């Protein structure tokens, strides 16, 4: 499916979708529980459906998971059963990494696979950690990539692993470690990238009654803990998705655009508010009310370290293309290992729209003073975040921008294009 976006303005009030990161973790946390948990306002998307299917494969039950669900109910499996069939994680790297550790608690063997994109993503450090804990964890192609064969049961223990590949490895071990006998201690050999995502995990685990420790150079979770959220958990708004709405406001809102559902949480991507403020945006965050108001403003380029906020890189690249001066996105090498190489993808597609960029292995520099965005046909690369970022660029490009692969927004923000249209954007899908 293609999305055609014309140069246009936005205004009014929009509501942020629920957080994908919290929804994944809440569904699995409820799965680790022994009773039934009602999850209020979840994000129902292709990725979170994959996690729900995995929970059912391990012996749990998920009810009410539909596109317009305001709540779903998860009956926990407590201790995972060995799945009766292969677990298909589709395009969801979060699902595969989190449930790799779940599979290590089961007595038999679990086979995990996914689509072509997911089968190209690295899992080696997590597989090594499972084996160090006494489990079985293999890549069928011996390259650290899915399909994976994982089994246990692991009882817990101490592992050492790099922190600069994926914070999801830490999340997976913390979540499973609480249900192991002895718990798990994780020593990090390198700096932890995307560290706020581990804090999201720890915040959610606390809401489910699970205690964890951050020792500075590693994390620990005691074994034998029970998952119990008191029967109900409410998912907060998603700041990764909010970033596109705020970018639309900063670039194309002659009158204010107000985003609801933006209450403070552990999400690192809430840094988008401070970044826009540094760039000169007219922005105000009423934290108690959970609303952010923003209007079109002249922006200036800045340097931004995306080590902890990799999902913001596509949004920031678009903002840089419309700003005066240079915008430098640094510490970005790990952003190449997402659904696609997002550094290269944004460089190529923004250049196709008339932007001037310089790509390095660990950085992307956008030369705003040499950029004049023009409507063009661009490729979303099968990546929801690339699709949405390019659509925002289309709001301020001269002419019509056609984004191929628009359907991939279903991964994290199914209502994205409808919301843009409701705010006044010139959007059509075909």
Question: Can you give me a brief rundown of this structure?
Answer:
It contains twelve helices and 24 strands. By secondary structure, it is α/β, with parallel strands linked by helices.
Explain how this protein is built.
It is a single chain. The protein is α/β, with parallel strands linked by helices and 430 residues long. The chain folds into two domains: 2-17 and 237-429, UDP-n-acetylglucosamine1-carboxyvinyl-transferase, Chain; 20-234, UDP-n-acetylglucosamine1-carboxyvinyl-transferase, Chain (Alpha-beta prism). It has helices at residues 20-32, 46-57, 93-103, 124-132, 168-177, 195-207, 239-252, 271-279, 313-321, 342-352, 384-395, 416-422; strands at residues 2-6, 12-15, 36-40, 61-63, 71-75, 87-88, 109-113, 136-139, 148-151, 157-161, 184-188, 212-214, 218-221, 232-234, 257-260, 282-286, 291-295, 303-305, 326-330, 357-360, 363-367, 377-379, 400-404, 426-429. The strands form six sheets. It has a four-stranded mixed beta sheet with strand order 22-23-1-24, with helices on one face. Strands 2-15-17-16 form a four-stranded mixed beta sheet, with helices on one face. Helix 1 (20-32) runs parallel beside helix 2 (46-57), helix 1 runs parallel beside helix 3 and helix 5 (168-177) runs parallel beside helix 6 (195-207). It is globular, with a radius of gyration of 21 Å.
């Amino acid at each position: 499916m293609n999305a055609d976006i014309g140069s246009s303005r936005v205004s009014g009030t929009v509501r942020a979708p629920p957080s994908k990161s919290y929804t994944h973790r809440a569904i699995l946390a409820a799965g680790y529980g022994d009773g039934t948990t009602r999850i209020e306002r979840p994000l129902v998307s292709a990725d979170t459906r994959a996690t729900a299917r995995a929970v059912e494969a391990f012996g749990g039950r998920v009810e009410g998971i539909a596109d317009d669900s305001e709540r779903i109910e998860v009956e926990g499996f407590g201790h995972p059963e060995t799945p009766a069939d292969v677990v298909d994680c589709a395009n969801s790297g979060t699902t595969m990494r989190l449930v790799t550790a779940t599979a290590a608690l089961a007595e038999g063997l679990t086979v995990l696979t996914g689509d072509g994109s997911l089968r190209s993503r690295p899992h080696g450090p997590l597989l090594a950690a499972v084996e160090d804990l006494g489990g079985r964890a293999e890549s069928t192609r011996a390259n650290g990539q899915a399909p994976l064969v994982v089994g246990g049961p692991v009882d817990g223990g101490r592992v050492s692993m790099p922190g600069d590949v994926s914070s999801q490895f830490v999340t997976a071990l913390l979540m499973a470690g609480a249900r192991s006998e002895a718990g798990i201690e994780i020593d990090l050999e390198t700096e932890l990238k995307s560290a706020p995502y581990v804090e999201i995990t720890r915040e959610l685990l606390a809401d489910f009654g699970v205690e964890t420790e951050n020792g500075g150079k590693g994390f620990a979770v005691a074994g034998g803990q029970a998952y119990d959220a008191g029967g109900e958990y409410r998912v907060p708004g998603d700041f990764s998705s909010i970033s596109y709405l705020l970018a639309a406001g900063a670039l194309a809102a002659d009158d204010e655009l107000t985003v609801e559902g933006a209450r403070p949480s552990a999400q690192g991507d809430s840094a988008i508010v401070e970044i826009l403020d540094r760039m000169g945006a007219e922005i105000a965050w009423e934290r108690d009310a959970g609303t952010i108001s923003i209007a079109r403003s002249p922006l200036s380029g800045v340097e931004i370290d995306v080590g902890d906020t990799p999902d913001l890189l596509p949004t920031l690249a678009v903002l840089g293309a419309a700003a005066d001066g240079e915008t430098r996105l640094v510490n970005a090498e790990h952003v190449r290992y997402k659904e696609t190489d997002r550094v290269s993808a944004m460089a190529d597609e923004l250049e196709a729209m008339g932007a001037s960029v310089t790509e390095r292995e660990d950085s992307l520099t956008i030369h705003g003073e040499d950029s004049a965005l023009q409507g063009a046909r661009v490729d979303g690369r099968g990546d929801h975040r690339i699709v949405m970022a390019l659509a925002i660029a289309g709001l301020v490009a001269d002419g019509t921008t056609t984004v191929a692969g628009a359907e991939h927004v279903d991964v994290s923000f199914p209502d994205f294009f409808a919301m843009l249209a409701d705010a006044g954007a010139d959007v059509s899908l075909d």
